[in-house]
Design goal:
heterodimer; A: mainly alpha; Four Helix Bundle (Hemerythrin (Met), subunit A); B: mainly alpha; two-stranded antiparallel sheet; elongated
């Protein structure tokens, strides 16, 4: 995993440098015009936030059952990345909405549930930071609740009336829109893997450091 | 004094004549003129800049954290592997 960090950063960096060229060449959307270009940097972090929350929940469940620290390290990293990618979606969304909807924020099902899910993972991080000994078990339980909200966030636009675009938009995108979108998505995904590997490496090193402290004191 | 008063009155009268009549009603339109519309470019640039900044800031902070932990780890490893003096004899013990 350690050896993969630098190549993953390099690959995602290359995609992030070249993606704007593809995005600039993509056609404008008929009703929204230029502001729709935010979509290429809004959809990937939003989807990866949901995927990351599910990943965090699964790893937390495994940690609660098997008690192996590696599951906890990965769950912690996934929770941090859920908050990071969630922040990106939460900031790029309102910038797009201001022009497309005329408001920065709308308290509809999709936006409100996304915010609530994001806040669950912020609480996870606060619990890990200030919870003291045993907080990893409590946080793992919290991550399971966070994971449970992910399907509702995704399906909310189809269940409730909302001004947010439906889930059918992306699968039916014309190729001129889809190509830059999935290219950007690949960049976001590789960056996710790179940051995950880096974060897990930190936790692994910290665990070794704690072990060594204990050994030195004996 | 009289001249000054005349000038002031003339200016006020001129301003009143030039002033537009007060708006008596609000008329709705479906589209605002292009000059009044919010430009998209700053919003797009702000969105892209935020994403890049967030990635760079997070990666930088994590990279520094990793460096610090690895430094502490190597320092402690060196300390642990160093032979410690025997309390009884004062000689180094492995």
């Amino acid at each position: 995993m350690r050896k993969a960090i630098v190549p993953l950063f390099a690959a995602s960096g290359l995609i992030f440098m070249t993606a704007p060229i593809l995005i600039a060449r993509a056609p404008y959307e008929s009703t929204m015009g230029l502001v729709q270009k935010i979509f290429y940097f809004h959809f990937p972090p939003a989807i990866l936030m949901l995927v990351s929350s599910i990943f965090c929940g699964i790893l937390s469940g495994l940690f609660l059952i098997k008690k192996r620290p590696v599951f906890d390290w990965m769950a912690f990293a996934a929770a941090e990345l859920t908050v990071l990618y969630g922040a990106m979606a939460m900031v790029t969304g309102p910038l797009w909405a201001r022009k497309a909807w005329g408001v920065w924020w709308q308290w509809d099902a999709r936006l409100t549930m996304s915010l609530l899910m994001w806040m669950v993972f912020v609480s996870y991080l606060l619990l890990r930071r200030y919870g003291g000994p045993g907080s990893e078990t409590l946080a793992a339980g919290l991550a399971l609740f966070g994971m449970a909200t992910a399907p509702f966030v995704y399906l909310s636009v189809n269940i409730w009336r909302t001004i947010h675009p439906l889930t059918s938009v992306v699968p039916t995108l014309p190729v001129d829109f889809a190509l830059p979108l999935w290219y950007a998505f690949l960049g976001f995904f590789l960056m996710y893997l790179a940051l995950m590997a880096l974060r897990v490496r930190i936790e692994e090193q910290r665990a070794m450091l704690d072990q060594l402290y204990l050994e030195s004191e004996e | 004094m009289k001249t000054l008063l005349t000038t002031v009155c003339t200016l006020i009268a001129g301003a009143m004549l030039r002033a537009q009549p007060g708006q008596s009603e609000f008329r709705p339109v479906t589209e605002i003129p292009a000059s009044e519309q919010l430009p998209s470019q700053p919003l797009v640039l702000a969105a892209y800049a935020f994403v890049w900044f967030a990635f760079l800031a997070y990666a930088f902070v994590m990279w520094r954290k990793l460096g610090k932990v690895e430094q502490d780890l190597s320092a402690l490893s060196a300390q642990v592997s160093k032979p410690r003096p025997d309390r009884a004899t004062g000689a180094n013990r492995p």
